[in-house]
Structures are given as structure tokens and as C-alpha cells.
């Protein structure tokens, strides 16, 4: 079982490496792993890679309501529409943004600048996004754009002196908390 899992992950990685080397011939191959949404949006190689990255690097865990609880079994039509689950800590309470709305008015060049320099409050792993290659960040952008705008904005950030309504995770941290950014 583990062996199978590793093989199929290795196959996906090889596939995405192949896309990188030969973008002109890649169109036929990734269609096999792209969802109908991704295929419909054109540039299937980049859109499918964006879907793969969003699926595997954890964006949905926070930015899609109920995703982790449903073991990832959520229709892509609902992906990345933000979440009402608060993350409460010394920084206040943050909510994973509705990325479909956030990117609605952003063009690709703006996204590439913005995502390369993004600094947020916790729990967003902004360092991970900044560390991604421009091609991976472009792929994520193309995929999110292929989904189109949808859903409602996530709740607004609350400062530390405000108690959030349920649901929220309360993070009890050691004396030196995650650095405020
Ligand atoms: C552990 C939870 C978590 C994960 C995983 C996560 N995010 Fe976030 N994200 C957040 C939270 C919470 C915020 C809001 C931070 C704030 O209020 O300062 C946020 C904010 C953002 C923002 C800034 C939005 C704005 O309003 O300008 C972007 C862009 C973003 N996330 C993209 C991503 C992408 C892409 C991934 C996957 C690679 C990802 N996030 C993974 C929790 C997460």
C-alpha cells in the first residue's frame, strides 16, 4: 500500500517535471489528472499543476470550509472560498481568506509580485508561498482563476481583545509565540 502510494506520488512528480521541460508537448498528458473544471479553463498543463499544488500543499485545509474534516472530499466548485473557522492566538483571530474573491481583481503580474512578498498574520504559512517557484505560483493563480469568483468573504480579522464567535481554534503557545508579522 505504502509502496503504491509512493509510486503514484513519484509518477505525479515525474509528470509535473515532464510538463516543466516540455510545455509544448505537455497538453495531452496532464489532462488525465485535471478535473473537468481545470480542463475547461484552457492551458491545461498549468491549470492542472495549480490544482495539484492546491490539493497537495495544504491551501484547502484552511481556505476551504470543512475540507480537512471531509478528508478532502469537497467539490472543487467550493474550493478556496474562505473559512469561518477562526485561528485565535496572541495576534488576535484570523480567518483564511476567500482566495477566489481576493484574486478576482488581480492580474497575473500583480499576483506574482504579491505572492513573492506576502506577509500575513498566522496561521498562514506565507513563508511557504514565498518559497514557491514563480511557475508554481503562476500555476496556483491560473487554477484559482479557472474556478472563478465565488462564495462570500471570510469574516474580518479580530484584534486580540475581541473574543470571536464559535467556531475557532484557540492556540495556547509557549512563552515565545510565533513572531508577529
Ligand atoms: C494553516 C492554515 C493555512 C494554510 C495551510 C494556508 N493558508 Fe493562506 N491564509 C490563512 C489565514 C488564516 C490567512 C489570513 C491571514 C491574516 O489575516 O493575516 C491566510 C491568508 C492568505 C493570503 C492573503 C490573503 C489576503 O487577504 O491578502 C493568501 C494569498 C493565501 N493565504 C494563500 C494561500 C495559499 C496559496 C495556500 C497554499 C499554498 C495557503 N494560503 C495555505 C491560513 C492558511
Helices, strands, pairings?
Layout: H1 2-21, H2 36-40, H3 44-56, H4 59-63, E1 86-89, E2 92-95, H5 99-102, H6 108-117, H7 126-131, H8 134-147, E3 168-170
Features:
181 residues, mainly alpha, 43% helix, 6% strand, disordered N terminus, binds heme C
Instruction: Estimate the helix proportion, in percent.
Output: 40-55%
**List of distinct ligands in this structure:** heme C
How would you write the strand order of the largest sheet?
A: 2-1-3
- Mean of residue pLDDT? 83
Count of runs of 4 or more consecutive helical residues: 8
Assembly of the depicted chains: single chain
Counting DSSP E segments of at least 2 residues, the number of strands comes to 3
Q: How many distinct domains?
A: 1
Which segments are poorly predicted (pLDDT under 50) over 5 or more consecutive residues? 1-34
Q: From N to C, what is the helix and strand string?
A: HHHHEEHHHHE
Strand content: 5-15%
Descriptive notes:
The chain has 181 residues and is mainly alpha-helical. The chain has one domain. The protein has helices at 2-21, 36-40, 44-56, 59-63, 99-102, 108-117, 126-131, 134-147; strands spanning 86-89, 92-95, 168-170. The protein has a 3-stranded mixed beta sheet, with no helix packed on it. A hairpin with a 2-residue loop joins strand 1 (86-89) and strand 2 (92-95). The protein is globular and about 45 Å long. Mean pLDDT is 83; it is low at 1-34.
